[in-house]
Write a structure and sequence with these properties.
- This protein has 156 residues and is mostly helical.
- The protein has 2 domains: 2-95, Orthogonal Bundle (Hypothetical Protein Yqey, Chain: A, domain1); 104-155, Arc Repressor Mutant, subunit A (Orthogonal Bundle), CATH 1.10.10.
- Helices cover 78% and strands 0% of the residues.
- The protein has 7 helices and no strands.
- The protein starts with a helix and ends with a helix.
- The relative contact order is 0.10.
- The model has no long low-confidence stretch (mean pLDDT 88).
């Protein structure tokens, strides 16, 4: 289970005095505990992966927000640079616990298959197609990337 591995890695980060890794892993461990309390049962590996994905998405969103804020600033953006680097470092650590992501070609094959399976022909069918692709991808594809490819295929 991921949570057991995280606790082991926290001890290693403590010994190595790796502050970024330590704080990121502690945050992830805390997120697992919150999810455990919410679910009232030991988390399955899929539920743990969902927590890691959620935390990774928070980092991606924060990076985008900091970059947008940095673009709007007229003064020096050194503070934003530091925050962006911190979020990127945390995202890299979280990514170690996620399965490898599918390539665009693989996702596109799934999209084409799902479109033919559902006889989708308009943007109104987008939700059905995305649902099928995400189920087949098994967490190895980002929803935003799938949605973008489905939109492109259905608008042709």
């Amino acid at each position: 289970m991921i949570a057991d591995k995280i606790n082991q890695k926290i001890a290693e980060a403590l010994k190595a005095k790796d502050e970024t890794r330590l704080s990121t892993l502690r945050m992830l461990s805390s997120a697992f505990n919150y999810e455990f309390i919410a679910k009232q049962h030991k988390l399955s590996e899929e539920e743990e992966l969902r927590v890691v994905r959620k935390e990774a998405k928070k980092r991606k969103d924060a990076i985008e927000a900091f970059k947008m804020a940095q673009g709007k600033q007229t003064t020096s953006g050194t503070n934003q640079d530091g925050r962006i680097k911190q979020e990127q470092a945390e995202l890299a650590i979280l990514s170690e616990y996620l399965p490898a992501q599918m390539g665009d070609e693989e996702i596109e094959k799934l999209v084409v298959g799902a479109i033919s399976q559902t006889d989708a022909s308009s943007m109104g069918d987008m939700g059905k197609v995305i649902g099928i692709v995400m189920a087949k991808a098994g967490g190895k594809a980002e929803g935003s990337k799938v949605a973008e490819l489905v939109k492109k295929k259905l608008s042709i």
